[in-house]
Design a protein that fits this description.
With 443 residues, the chain is mainly alpha-helical. 72% of the residues lie in helices and 0% in strands. The protein has one domain: Growth Hormone, Chain: A, CATH 1.20.1250.20.
């Protein structure tokens, strides 16, 4: 069967909701360390707050993939999960920034106060719901786009993702600029951050509803014809467990997964330690209650927005490479250079160059792993394999988060040194790209 091409409009509609989802993800990644530091967390504790969200992702994503592979109703196949994930994310975004306003100051288990525990469980639900809303977009591209258009489709998704990041990262400084308070009593989240989450939640649900209304998923018969699947064999394989599928995963799954390990560990360190790095290197403070620390928190949003611009621009460059692996290596090495330079920079505007380079790595991480993987799959168990592949995103974050406090001690408590280490990790990821066979196809 000749696999039809989708129009440019259809490719954009397929991923448009990703814009809103990524606003939520950007608000989380840029503000969580700031929020927990404000609630009273010690810098050596910050990475621990990032363990449970990816752990939940490792549990939830394979299940979402498995369930959605077996779902078909009048709402679609992947779209019901997309809608549920977005609705839960909206609710959590309304509650999370209010953790410090609930007067939970008593120290409870593990030396954490009630506000931190409330924030921690909110973070778990937020990250889980964002992933539930995010994953169907990757699955729908795998479902509905042919091999020739996948690089373009995932690059469009990367562009929209980074456009959403750009908006989300700038929200706190924008609301500060229009007069909303960027400071608050000790232990309370500033209103500029609260309003960022409220507005981000509204945009998230509107964008997801747009894709939900515009995209028509293939019915099971169309899907089988598009991917050349024998429905009878597919029915026989429905009983296969996730461990069996993992055992028979194509080699590309594992080799790209190894690259992912180094890349996502690097970005976990960026999300965790950029606020402290900028506060110390540029504003000369380590006090979360100080005006300088909160100003650094706003500037984190600015440099992350610059990263998003770099990602959007680089997402347009990636399809011009003749080989995906070449694009992957070049992107990761540029990102490594960006991370390493942050260690030496003490001027907030010079940081723009560093984060533009980091954006190149991020663009590649959003587009190329999924292009390489889905091109190696036959179409059977697409959702399950993409759900399992999400573990290559979650596991490195868990490892990096669990060891972050120890590593921080080993580098003398310098949060800037953690970003230098992130650069080393991206170099390791670039070296592992050589193991990937981009032409491999699962039988």
């Amino acid at each position: 069967m000749q696999k039809r091409d989708l129009t440019s409009r259809q490719l954009w509609d397929l991923s448009f909701g990703f814009f809103g989802v990524q606003i939520a993800y950007a608000l989380q990644s840029a503000n969580i360390s700031r929020i927990f530091a404000t609630l009273g967390a010690d810098p050596h504790q910050l990475s621990f707050f990032w363990i449970l969200p990816p752990l939940m992702g490792m549990i939830v994503q394979p299940l979402i993939g498995r369930w959605s592979d077996r779902t078909w109703n009048r709402l679609g196949r992947r779209k019901p999960y997309l809608l549920v994930g977005a609705l839960v994310a909206v609710l959590v975004m309304a509650f999370l920034p209010n953790a410090g306003s609930l007067n939970f100051s008593t120290r409870l288990l593990l030396g954490l106060n009630g506000a931190m525990w409330f924030g921690l469980f909110s973070l778990i639900f937020l990250d889980t719901s964002i992933n539930v809303a995010m994953q169907p977009f990757k699955m729908m591209v795998g479902d509905m786009v042919n091999e020739q258009q996948k690089a373009k489709a995932y690059s469009i998704q990367s562009f929209l993702c980074n456009a959403g990041s750009f908006a989300g990262y700038l929200f706190p400084i924008f609301f500060t600029w229009i007069g909303i308070a960027n400071t608050a009593p000790e232990g309370v989240i500033p209103d500029s951050v609260k309003w960022s989450f409220y507005v981000g939640a509204a945009i998230l649900i509107l964008c997801v509803l747009y894709t939900f209304m515009r995209v028509k998923e293939m019915n099971p018969q169309e899907y089988a014809e598009f991917h050349g699947i024998d429905p009878q064999k597919q029915e026989q394989k429905k009983g296969e467990g996730l461990l069996t599928l993992l055992k028979h995963a194509p080699k590309t799954f594992w080799t790209v997964g190894l690259v992912q390990f180094f890349c996502w560990a690097a970005f976990l360190y960026m999300w965790t330690y950029t606020n402290g790095t900028l506060a110390a290197n540029v504003w000369g403070t380590t006090d979360p209650a100080s005006e300088g620390y909160q100003a650094a928190g706003n500037w984190v949003g600015v440099v992350f927005a610059v990263q998003a611009v770099g990602s959007m621009l680089w997402a347009l460059v990636i399809p011009r490479f003749k080989r995906l692996k070449t694009a992957y290596v070049v992107s990761l090495l540029l990102g490594a250079l960006g991370f390493a330079s942050v260690f030496f920079v003490h001027d907030k505007f010079v940081l723009f160059a560093s984060f533009l380079l980091i954006g190149a790595a991020w663009a590649a991480m959003l587009a190329l792993p999924f292009t390489l993987l889905t091109n190696s799959l036959s179409g059977e168990h697409m959702g399950e394999y993409l759900g399992l592949f999400n573990c290559t995103i979650c596991l490195p974050q868990i490892v990096a988060a669990a060891t972050g406090g120890l590593v921080l001690k080993l580098v003398g408590g310098s949060q800037a040194a953690m970003l230098l280490l992130a650069g080393v990790l991206l170099v390791a990821g670039a070296l592992c790209v050589g193991l990937v066979n981009e032409k491999a196809k699962q039988s």
